[in-house]
Amino acid sequence: MVPFAGFDMPVQYSGIIDEHTAVRTAAGLFDVSHMGEVLVTGPEAFAFVQNLVTNDVSSLYDGKALYSAMCQPDGGIIDDLLVYRWSEEIYTLVINASRIVEDLAWMRANNPMGANIKDVSDITALIALQGPAAFEILKAASGLDYSGMKFYHFERPESIMGCNHVVVSRTGYTGEPGVELYSTTQDAPVLWDALLQAGAEHGIRPAGLGARDTLRLEAGYCLYGNDITLDTNPLEAGLAWLTKLDAGPFIGRDALIKAKEDGIQRRLVGFVATERGIPRNGHDICAPDGTVIGTVTSGTQSPVLSTGIGMGYVPLDPAFTTPGSSLKVSARGRSFNVTVAKPPFHIDR
Q: Is the pTM of this model over 0.90?
């Protein structure tokens, strides 16, 4: 157990590799109730959210969610988040635990339209059921079949596993199929126990922060504070797909348009080690001749590949960004070779 964003969080239960493997082959259960939830309501809710985030909120409909970034005027990323639409006047924003205070302050300071903003983090729990057996386990526990639910969609059933205020969301942070269940804090233990019991015969494992990080990195998902920060923008972070510059004004749009016109100078790339070595945050990324060209933002030993994997920013040069290109990672006087690769790393191409 470790302190994290005001919570005591499990790094591991049965072991990071065991939990990671369970998610890739069967299922894992994560308590991610430390995440923040913000309820935005009122006639100005849509206008507020559309101005706040880089993605196009007008593409949403009731029961649909999207992934987006929230930026400063200079394009730097304040946070990445999920936006859920209940109606044109009701949205839920799911933000990172370490950014709750900063995000809420930013939202309240950039709300000239007067939308109602309410922090509901402390009364909201979140459990993630992830893995190939996730929907089978959920059906066994609840009697409800969500295997046909589309990605980034959500529903609120009348009752599930004896609980009446649960949202079932087809989202996750592992690169595997699964759901995330939002509930009251009182109902979370009921859901947790029911899913563990139903999943026992399928090989389910409770999983902690360690496996959550190795899973998201194998899938190539960015982590706020590492791969995306106030000093990075969505275009250089490879998040242009959630940056809809033509969708209308939003905070940071002008800076991002200029960055696109001028041409970005660096790019977040993924890489796989081709010899023994584990990249870690802060290690140098070097050209083949040993010249330092960037810094590792995330790195680990991939349990699936049994080799080091990582991500980091390098100059926008085909010699450094093209998949298959050779680079080096260096730390404490030792370097090892890596090959640029496009995530997800664990899926055969």
A: yes
